[in-house]
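Backbone shape codes:
===
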Amino acid sequence: MQLKDYIRNVPDFPTPGIQFKDITPLLKAPDAFREAIDELARYCATRAIDVIAAVDARGFLLAAPLAYRLQKPLIPIRKAGKLPFDTHKVTYFLEYGTDAVEVHQDAVADGQRVLVVDDLLATGGTLAATVKLIETAGARVDSLLVLVELLDLNGRSVLEGYDVHSLIQF
């Protein structure tokens, strides 16, 4: 099965010049979604992780079945203002301004090894902020796992020193 065939390209979304990679065709195809989760789980089995962190929002769709299957705690990494308890917060820069990610202060314990899951690696800004957030909370990022990686945007360059694994590359 070619999982790449289940990723739709949407030109000029959300702004002109952006080629958005839409994972919803993969999500609505049970065989493709199962294959993607199975492949991601095979990678996870090679890592010594304690916790899975899911990046808001599409990362939740991948991390939840992985956490269930691997019987690991799942923690949400949310956009600022979405979590109801005391949080750690990291602000980061985007092409058009700033954004922030948060995690509950009690989400991870000191020294825990965390696998970060997101749907896509583009410039690496969100994942770099997530790494900083997890380390601020006292845990250690073991690895970063994404469904899709946009190679020409070289997001790995801002994640040097971390194991980054992607299932599908464009």
In short: The longest helix spans residues 30-44. The chain has one domain: 48-169.
